[in-house]
Write a structure and sequence with these properties.
CATH class of the largest domain: Alpha Beta
Oligomer: single chain
CATH topology of the largest domain: Rossmann fold
Number of helices: 12
Radius of gyration: 26 Å
Bound molecules: iron/sulfur cluster
Order of helices and strands: HEHHEHEEEHEHHEHHHHH
Structural class: alpha/beta
Mean pLDDT: 92
Largest sheet: 5 strands, parallel
Distance between the termini: 66 Å
CATH architecture of the largest domain: 3-Layer(aba) Sandwich
Helix content: 25-40%
Amino acid sequence: SSVADQAAANGKPSAEDESPIHILWINAGLSCDGDSVSLTAATQPSIEEIALSVLPGLPKVAVHWPLIDFECGPVQGADNFIEWFFKGERGEIDPFVLVIEGSIPNESIKPEGYWCGFGDNPETGQPITTSEWIDRLAPKALAVVAIGTCATYGGIHAMAGNPTGAMGVPDYLGWDWTSKAGIPIVCVPGCPIQPDNFSETLVYLLYQAVGSAPMIPLDDQLRPTWLFGATVHEGCDRAGYYEQGQFATTYDSPKCLVKIGCWGPVVKCNVPKRGWMDGIGGCPNVGGICIACTMPGFPDKFMPFMDEPPGGKISSTASAAYGSVIRRLRDITAKTVDHEPKWRHRGDQLTTGYRK
Ligand code: SF4
Ligand code: SF4
Ligand code: SF4
């Protein structure tokens, strides 16, 4: 097969004869499951391509993901969805990548009950808390990946007030935490994630796991650098309007949205460049203000949504002033270049300026 050929060419066992890399997915943080749902729209690559290991050189994977798994059940035992997590804890599936969706509540701030759990403890019949699963599985994982802004930085549940003490995975495990393979926590923020951003990161880690990719490059907020290195503004379809000082005051306008609440100039996100599904969409491109859903300061530092960002007033005033001058000059040039050169005509005279 082409996968086997490619693997052989790389000097690695083929996907067919390898034991799989397991993906243990916990979506039982404080979560709306929006990231799982978003991932079903991935196309570059798609979740089907990952789950079926059809990409050249990709190791075989076994995905234990509540959203698509046909196994079900919260109790320890064979043919039970939750059994794979106990196997991970016992070291019976190695390697595995641990994916965490949703923010992690602080279970230490109250004497009774629990905030969130996943599966049952066979000894007590009580739920095993999400944070306990992280304690059990993170030390055994090849890599820990936080999906969505809740899991990466706390997100909506961790906004001011925060009765559950919600936090992101790096707050819980420690920002300097590394897996047994030396890989830091990998954060793919977004509320929800842009689907391809996550599928691409997962594929990167799988290639890294079989030695086909170097250590994943992450920035100081643990985001893949190639995905989160540029701002929304730098990739926005409306950036030309901003530069010419043309601003929308209503949502039915194609102009720049900064005056009605867009935070794009200071937000690290590739969505306008990449689109949302299969290259289509991307918040400001299609009329939605950027509310900074990928950022560690989200949502508190960007509220109230739909108000003009404080910094936007100064920069848009400056851009409105020079933009009006630039626009006038461009109008002159635009009129000139919108007409053909005058030597394109019939008749017996050559008027191009050419001389023998
Ligand atoms: Fe839902 Fe957003 Fe949290 Fe993901 S980051 S679980 S989409 S609220
Ligand atoms: Fe920048 Fe937002 Fe305006 Fe786009 S809509 S150009 S991201 S300020
Ligand atoms: Fe979130 Fe802004 Fe990116 Fe849209 S453009 S996904 S609102 S950070």
